[in-house]
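User: My advisor asked me to double-check a structure prediction for Acetyltransferase before group meeting. I don't want to rely on an old file, so could you generate it fresh from this sequence?
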Amino acid sequence: MKKLAIIGAGDLGQQIAYHAAQDNQFEVVGFFDDFATPNTIINQIKVFGKVEDVENGFTNKLFDEVIIGIGYKHLGFREKLYTSLKAVVPFATFIHSSCYIDASCVVGSGVCIFPGVIIDQQAIIKDNVFINISCTIAHDSIIAQHTFLSPRVAIAGFVNIGKRCNIGINSTIIDNINVADDVQIGAGTVVINQIEKSGLYVGNPSRFIR
Ligand SMILES: CC(=O)SCCNC(=O)CCNC(=O)[C@H](O)C(C)(C)COP(=O)(O)OP(=O)(O)OC[C@H]1O[C@@H](n2cnc3c(N)ncnc32)[C@H](O)[C@@H]1OP(=O)(O)O
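Assistant: Sure, here is a fresh prediction for Acetyltransferase from the sequence you gave:
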């Protein structure tokens, strides 16, 4: 079994650790976190060090693959970590065994897909995307790099979601919609029109608020 290290020892990192181990896909061996004290133990998992220690940790064979547990509040940092580390450490792809991902889908590296997600034919999930529990992504849709989907997001067919988007819980995006980069969508929002500029959108139908 591969040894997994997680960058970020907060709530999201701990959830990833739980699911990756409980699903018997990885031995979760350690966290890297700038705000945790090195060598302390969090939920029985050691804090190996800070983000700057990831490359040395790999060289010293502390882990086989890494994944990022930095969530929707810091998507720019999530991107920065991924782009700076991808050439020097191998990234894991974690898809919980309860998911249905059609065999025709393409799922990138560093992607984390939590329990109960359904992704239909020809969908593309690009690198470093995080997909929370119970999301549904219909056929031919594309989720671009570093984007975060909250629980139970429903995405119809032929949808393109941009980079570093934060899609709120239980939101719905109808078919043939393009969502720009750096868009935040509030909980329960219903997107029925193209979203061409970055910013925060809420409501049914969705409206730009800032
Ligand atoms: C596992 C996990 O937990 S993952 C995380 C899941 N969490 C989420 O998905 C949370 C999503 N967050 C939201 O929906 C938040 O309400 C946000 C981010 C959209 C807005 O939060 P804030 O920046 O605090 O905005 P604020 O509360 O001041 O609202 C601004 C306006 O938008 C409205 N608004 C805010 N959220 C929503 C919403 N989801 N739907 C409709 N209207 C909304 C407010 O009523 C307010 O309207 P007004 O100006 O007419 O009074």
